Amino acid sequence: MAERGRQTYWQILPLGPTSYGDSPYQSFSTFAGNPYFISLEALIKEGVLTKAECDKADFGNKADDINYEKIYRKRYPLLRKAYERSNISENADYQRFVEENKWWLWDYALFMAVKDRFGGVPWTEWAEDIRLRWQNAMDYYGKELYFDIEFQQYMQFKFFSQWKELKDYANGKGIRIIGDIPIYVAMDSADTWAHPELFQLDENNVPTAVAGCPPDGFSADGQLWGNPLYRWEYHRNTGYDWWLSRIWYCFQLYDVVRIDHFRGFDEYYSIPYGETTAISGHWEKGPGLELFRCMEQRLGWHEVIAEDLGYVTDSVRQLVRDSGFPGMKVLEFAFDARDSGSANDYFPHNYTENSIAYTGTHDNETIVGWYQSITEEERQMARNYLCDHYTPEKLLYKSFISLVMRSNAKTCIIPIQDYLGYDNSCRMNKPSTLGINWRWRLKKGELGEELKEEILSVTKRYGRMNWQ
Predict the structure, then answer these.
(1) pTM of the entire structure?
(2) Catalytic residue at 267?
(3) pLDDT, tens digit, for every residue of 403-442?
(4) CA–CA distance, 260 with 308 (Å, rounded to integer)
(5) How far is CA 183 from CA 65, 166, 211, 319, 343, in A?
(6) What is the pLDDT of residue 128?
(7) Alpha-carbon distance 160 to 157, whole Å?
(8) Which of 81, 285, 429, 454 has the most CB atoms within 10 Å of its CB?
(9) Which residues of the chain have a pLDDT value below 70?
(10) Of 307, 332, 365, 378, which is the active-site residue?
(11) 65 φ, ψ to 5°?
């Protein structure tokens, strides 16, 4: 569909293995891939699973809704069967993958194997010897859980082998992939367990402060994310080695990287550990431009998008300008009755060329749902801005897409829900909520010929054809 519509970019969410809440921004590893994405069809072709075995597994009965509980309970036993039938230890490609990725893979595989041994509880609740990584415990579990560790490595091998095939296919069609790097890692992750020195933890590896954001339009209590905060002085003293490894790794997987919560590099919101809301947090100074100068010096120039949304100060704006990275402009933020002046950064006539324009992001309502939820005054503002009081509301989403596409931003990203004109029943995420997010998925057949032609038409109309 993207090729037929002459699109250049495909933006995706983080690919890491998800934990409680199913959020791709709370992953068990910043380096690992999510086994949920391993193609069972490919394993059937390989001969390590049968179609009957896969058909028997109940992954849920709604094509447009992901049932994570059923996937968790049914997919891993299938993948374990595939591993046991694969004779993986004699596979030269597997051995090469393990060797090349041992700098993160062993810790991750051991972490997941031990987590399973302890019934899935967070590593902070494990027995003290392995929780604190005493050498005798590391040796014991490394031997005791040998095959469980190898299974975890096998799943990563399969994930990344399949991902490379997919990326090569997309690139061959002229599609470049925009990946996403969350600024923080999860507390319950192999990263925090294996490298506590990187984070603001005490001598028992308990956080002293955690991440979040202050009260805003999304939440009156702010957002308490709970991620451990970085010990930035330590990172500075190591030349940001861990961070640069992380960014380098992202560019092995993606063509462009969107850095989530970019303002956290200027100042980050620190909430005392144990608080139940984000109200009592305060701002601390981040690493600033120094990190990105190190990145350019050691990794060379790469395409980056700065997610500079939320509470943006002058110093954040300056950091984005100094970095040279394009920031993000979200149309839904423009029509706010509390900030209706023409200088509002989110009005399309104010978009700079060095920016990426969106109708909305994964954290926002769909454009249809947004228009339905705003006040009558704000709907009037939007109609006036469009100079359009006649288009039926059910078709107005097309006008908003056109509005973004004819802006001066060098790139436009339109969520597929907005191209399809879907309401908030198809929303991807509602911040500060659990159990209802990250579940929507596109059904087979929804990207019909008419939609492809419409996407192609609007792309041509506003001169956004980057290739012929």
Answers:
(1) 0.94
(2) no
(3) 999 999 999 999 999 999 999 999 999 987 888 899 999 9
(4) 8
(5) 27, 25, 10, 16, 29
(6) 96
(7) 5
(8) 429
(9) 1-5, 217-218, 339-343, 466-468
(10) 307
(11) -140, 130
List, for residues 284-293, the tens digit of each pLDDT value.
999 999 999 9
> Hey, what are 180's tokens?
């996403």
Q: What local confidence, expressed as pLDDT, does residue 433 receive?
A: 83
Please indicate whether residue 363 is annotated as part of the active site: yes
Look up 353 and say whether it is catalytic: no
Catalytic residue among 129, 275, 363, 423: 363
**Amino acid letter for position 448:** G
Residue 242 amino acid letter:
W
Domain limits of the chain?
195-325, 327-468
What is the rounded distance in angstroms from the CA atom of residue 32 to the CA atom of residue 41?
21
32 neighbors 156 (Cβ within 8 angstroms):
yes
Q: Which of 53, 129, 260, 284 is catalytic?
A: 260
